[in-house]
Amino acid sequence: MHWRDPALHLARLFTDFEPGLHYSQAQMQSGLTGINALRIYNPVLQSQKLDPNGEFIRRWIPELAGVPREMIHTPWLMTPTQKAKFGGNTYIAPVCDHEQAARAARKAVGDFRKQHISREETGRVLDRHGSRKGPHQTRPKAAAKQTQDNQLSLFD
């Protein structure tokens, strides 16, 4: 999917949409800038991480309200007996296998990048738009403080 359609969709939704920021984020998330790693999120892992008890799911998908915690993130894997017991009989199956779709997307983007984005182009984009301009800077280390009574410092 081209980055412009999702960016325009988000522009209509966000109350703080800023093209200068969000267009570049859409381009970066689409993996087409050549300077950032491709990000394809696993919806099951994100759900488990961000909603471990399934509270959001139960609130916004009422047909899954009775599903136990250990099944709430993958209700399509429930057996017919479990669906009858806990609910979820009307919950639809996923539209795709996200792991298979992610593999296909990684391959498609990788193939596209090999054909259309060279190291020179990546360097040009980074030089022009990257925030890592100039030499690498490091903070000087603080001098170790002497403590009395052989007490250890919290910061050594």
Task: Supply the key terms.
156 residues, mainly alpha, extended, 8 helices
Description:
The protein is mostly helical and 156 residues long. The chain has helices at 4-13, 19-29, 43-50, 55-60, 69-72, 80-86, 98-116, 119-129. α1 packs across α2 (19-29). The longest helix has 19 residues, at 98-116. The chain starts with a helix and ends in a 27-residue tail after the last helix. The mean pLDDT is 82.
Instruction: Note the total helix count.
Output: 8
Distance between the termini: 51 Å
Q: What average pLDDT do the residues reach?
A: 82
- Assign the structural class, choosing from mainly alpha, mainly beta, alpha/beta, alpha+beta, or little secondary structure: mainly alpha
CA-based gyration radius:
24 Å
Total strand count, please? 0
Q: pLDDT under 50 segments (min length 5)?
A: none
Summarize the structure.
This protein is an all-alpha fold and 156 residues long. It is 49% helix and 0% strand. Helix 1 crosses helix 2.
Topology:
Blueprint lengths: L3 H10 L5 H11 L13 H8 L4 H6 L8 H4 L7 H7 L11 H19 L2 H11 L27
Helix pairs in contact: 1-2
